[in-house]
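Following up on my earlier message about NAP. Here are the inputs again, as you asked, copied directly from the submission form:
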Amino acid sequence: MKQQTDTEKVTCLIIGSGPAGYTAAIYASRANLHPVLYEGMQTGGQLTTTNEVENFPGYPNGVSGTEMMEDIRKQALKFGADIREGNVTSVVLTDSVKKVVVDGKKEIEAQAVIIATGASARYLGLESERKFRGMGVSACAVCDGFFYRKQTVAVVGGGDTAVGDALYLAGIANKVYLIVRKNYLRASKVLQERVKNTPNIEILFEHVTKEVLGDDSGVTGLLLEKQGKESVQIDVTGLFLAIGHQPNTAIFKDFISLDENGYIVTEGKGSQTNVKGVFACGDVQDPIYRQAITAAASGCKAALDTERYLQSL
Ligand code: NAP
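Thanks, got it. Here's what our run produced:
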C-alpha cells in the first residue's frame, strides 16, 4: 500500500534567513500571517560570514554580522514567527499550487511564499582551487582566518568584501596579498584608504590567479600572471576568494522568471514574481545594491505584498 505523506498547510512560508527573510518574518508575524520560516544551510545568511558591520543605521559603534542577525531573528521570534532549521530542496510554484519539500522529505503547501535565499560566494573555477578547498582555499575570511595566525595569505578580489577580508586577515596573519585583476579597487573609498594604510597588506594590481599550488599539507603558494604575460609565484598558506556572489535560485528556475545572471525578476518596485502569491526579496533578486539594509527593506516590502495578496484571495 502506498504510504500517505502528511502535507503541512501554512499561510505564509518564508525561505531563507538573512536580513530579508527575518525582516519579512517580523512584518508577517505582526500582520498575523503566522509565517513559517526555513533557515536553509547558512542560518543568518551571508552576514554571519562578515566581520564588523559599520553601515547599518542604528549601530553607531558597529556590530558583528552574527550578532545583528541574532537580534533580528529574536525580534521575529518575539512576534511569533515559526523559525525552523531545514533546507528547502524542491518546489512546485504555480499560480494555483505552492508546494515545497524540506530536506527531501517534509512536504508543505503554502498560500503564499516569500523567497529570500540570498546569494553564495563565487569561486574562480580552477581545478587546483577545487582540490584545495578546505585545505587552504576558503571563501569566508571570518570563518577560517583564525587558522592562519602569523602566516602569509592572499585574498582575490577588489570589491568591498575583498578589501574588508584583507583588513580582517591583516590583524591575524603576518602578511596579506590582495590580488586584483584590474589596476584599481572597486571598494568604497573609506575601505580603500584603510587597506592602503595597512603596512602588512600588499596589493598586487593587474594580477590574475592561474593556479593554486600545494601538497599533502595544503596550499603552499599561488601562480599568478602579471599584466597578461609575466608569471609570478608567491608563497602563501591560505587563499581567500572574495570575487562576488551568485544568487541561490537553482531550485526555482523551472517556475520563477530569472534574469540572465540567475537573479529573480520582480515586478516594478515591489516583490511580486511572475507567479501569483510568490514574492522575492534580498540578494536573490538584487544584482545592484546587495546591502544588509536594502535586503531588510525588501523583506518588509515582500511581507506587505504578501499581506495584500492574501487579503485579495
Ligand atoms: P563585487 O563588488 O561584485 O566585487 C567583486 C570583485 O571581485 C571585483 O573587484 C571584481 O573585479 C573581482 N572579480 C570578479 N570575478 C573575478 C575573477 N574571476 N577573478 C578575479 N577577480 C574577480 O563583490 P563584493 O565585494 O562581494 O560586494 C558585493 C556587494 O556587497 C557590493 O554592493 C558591496 O558594496 C557590498 N558589500 C558592502 C560591504 C560594506 O559596505 N561594509 C561589505 C561587503 C560587501 P572587477 O572589479 O575587475 O570586476
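One observation from looking it over: The helical segments are 19-30, 65-78, 127-131, 141-144, 160-170, 189-196, 292-311. Hope that helps, and feel free to reply on this thread.
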